[in-house]
Amino acid sequence: MATRTQFENSNEVGVFSKLTNSYCLVALGGSENFYSAFEAELGDAIPIAHTTIAGTRIVGRMTAGNRRGLLVPTQTTDQELQHLRNCLPDSVKVQRVEERLSALGNVICCNDYVALVHPDIDRETEELIADVLGVEVFRQTISGNVLVGSYCALSNQGALVHPQTTVQDQEELSSLLQVPLVAGTVNRGSQVVGAGMVVNDYLAVTGLDTTAPELSVIESIFRLQDAQPDAISGNLRDTLIETYS
């Protein structure tokens, strides 16, 4: 399922929210429409945490996470950390990261198996990503851009990257990520696909400006046409593959 919404007239859904297979974060404040778009689709499938990160509402840009864990910048307050730990499932590790590239959502792009990271990220951060999120980590650029989290939207089913990514780069990224990958846009031509949408294995949420052709590309590459939350039963890749084959 792919759906469209706005956060206070902004189409940058991926700036104000974070979506994984085990939880969802949405920014505090904003309009009810924004939350209801998530609540209508997710229901009781996964918890939705209303939060700020380091006092800001750009929760999608400040955090990186998957079903196993959530990484937050060192500026995150103790109250925010406690709130997140209370809201998220016990199986999800919430970890503060000391990293000068503190907008973690811009510099880390991950699913439940692989993470692409900014080439200059700290070695300690790289180890934390591998440990907390349980993923293989690759230092990478996307179409020459170091902000991999801004220019890639990724799930366990597929990936959408910056529209000017060359075919050679697309093939390299696809083989690293082990998912089908396509270059494209969201929100009527926006190249920052990571900031313009959020996606997990059964739901994508994009900005209201997203066109029908863009939406159909998203539904196709992320295999969302017939996906249901309850279909994501097992946590192993082979279970996922059986479910969607």
Class by SSE composition: alpha/beta
Per the CATH scheme, the topology name is L-arginine/glycine Amidinotransferase, Chain A
What proportion of the residues form beta strands (DSSP E)? 15-25%
Helix content: 25-40%
Q: Compute the average pLDDT.
A: 92
Order of strands in the sheet with the most strands? 1-15-14
CATH superfamily: L-arginine/glycine Amidinotransferase, Chain A
End-to-end C-alpha gap = 17 Å
Q: Given the structure, what is the number of helices?
A: 10
CATH architecture assignment name: 5-stranded Propeller
What's the overall geometry?
A: globular
Number of strand elements: 15
- How many separate domains? 1
Radius of gyration using CA atoms only: 16 Å
Order of helices and strands: EHEEHEHEEHEHEEHEEEHEHEEHH
Biggest sheet character? 3 strands, mixed
Q: Which ranges are low-confidence, i.e. pLDDT below 50, for 5 or more consecutive residues?
A: 231-236
CATH class: Alpha Beta
Organism: Kluyveromyces marxianus (strain DMKU3-1042 / BCC 29191 / NBRC 104275)
Modified residues (Phosphoserine): 174-175
Subunit structure: Monomer. Associates with the 60S ribosomal subunit.
GO biological process, one term: ribosomal subunit export from nucleus
